[in-house]
Amino acid sequence: MNFTALELTQKLIGFNSCNPPGNEAEIAKYCGDILLDHGFEISYYEMAVGRLHLIAEKGLSKDKPPIILTGHFDTVPLGDSPWCYRPYQATIDDGKLYGRGASDMKSGVAALICAAIESLENETIAGGIRLILTAGEENFCEGMQQLANHPDANLGSASAIVVGEPTSNMPAIGHKGALLLNAVSRGVTAHSSMPDDGENAIYKAARAITSIENIKWDVKDEWLGATTINVGLMSGGMNPNSVPDNAQFSIDARTTAAFGNKNVLSHLKKILGDKVYLETIVDLEPVITMPESVFIATVLEVCKKSQQKERLTLPYVTDASILKKSYPNAPIIILGPGEPRQAHQTDEFCYIEKISEAVELYKNIIIKWSKESYE
């Protein structure tokens, strides 16, 4: 391999894959060409025009399912705040690599690719390696959802899954789920000078939002903590001098195994009643693999980490929520070189040393797991 993971990360940052619109086809083909040159079998699956998923496989056998390495090509937009560093130039400064996607998660994609290539150069990996690199993750994992349901894509089986999302190379055994709802209230329109002739939908929505603000779920999950809820968007009405007959707002709940998506939806319907209609937009379940799992124990040993609860789970969702359904028996770890608090930030950066460190961690996990008995 004639390039480093840092150099590959710089190349990947150079692709503008902000979602929307994504435009992940170019970066997918660039990565696909690299993997093809190193003996991987390559398949592309179209998400939409100009948007591609990539699956790359090498060394697969019937003796053991492959280990899955997964990440995404897209990034969030740049935002309105001015950048000090050019977002697609991949500038190195004071031990940091700056650029959109530096942490979330082009450094992770680069490290996964390099680890996959290097692991198979001098080792026979039992079961082989499957890389799943997707478009469209940033909009609540819609890309992986589409790939999992793609009629031509065969995701096969898996012995274990490594998700390369940003964790500053701290292994995470799971994360919260996400339930995104659109809440709609209806009213009766009238002239604003005669409000008693109408029924104000915004007032209904406001009362509903106030009741949501006061929700505190006391059920604590051993690993994921408490389920949380937030109202982030609201709109309604058509002009200032009319009684609004329509209002809507978003509800974003981050859920746990102890108080999951169904519990949240049931509780909201109970307290909001028939005054507000709830439409489910995103329904992603929480993910957890117990530390007693042989794979998790292997990862923690490689990373030289203990089983401290506060260090092992994440508040945000990843494609693991989708992969959990496609590979129900496969243990999952979330581990990547990016800095979690740099994700989606202006002047996003990743520490350079973390990228090469991630490659070594991934390689050691792949090789050590290859020698373990499949659970």
Considering the chains and any ligands shown, give keywords for the structure.
375 residues, alpha+beta, Aminopeptidase, Alpha-Beta Plaits, 6-stranded mixed β-sheet, 5-stranded antiparallel β-sheet, 21 strands, globular
Task: Describe the structure in brief.
This protein is an alpha+beta fold and 375 residues long. The chain has nine helices and 21 strands. A six-stranded mixed beta sheet has the order 1-2-6-3-7-20, sandwiched between helices. Strands 9, 13, 14, 16 and 17 form a five-stranded antiparallel beta sheet that branches. A three-stranded antiparallel beta sheet has the order 4-5-21.
Topology readout:
Elements: H1 5-13, H2 25-37, E1 41-48, E2 51-58, E3 67-72, E4 91-93, E5 96-98, H3 102-122, E6 129-134, H4 142-148, E7 160-163, E8 174-175, E9 177-186, E10 190-191, H5 201-213, E11 220-221, E12 225-226, E13 228-230, E14 234-236, E15 242-243, E16 246-255, H6 261-272, E17 277-284, E18 287-288, H7 294-303, E19 313-314, H8 320-326, E20 332-334, E21 349-351, H9 352-370
Parallel strand pairs: 3-6, 3-7, 7-20, 8-19
Antiparallel strand pairs: 1-2, 2-6, 4-5, 5-21, 8-18, 9-16, 9-17, 10-15, 11-12, 13-16, 14-16
Helix pairs in contact: 1-3, 3-9, 7-9
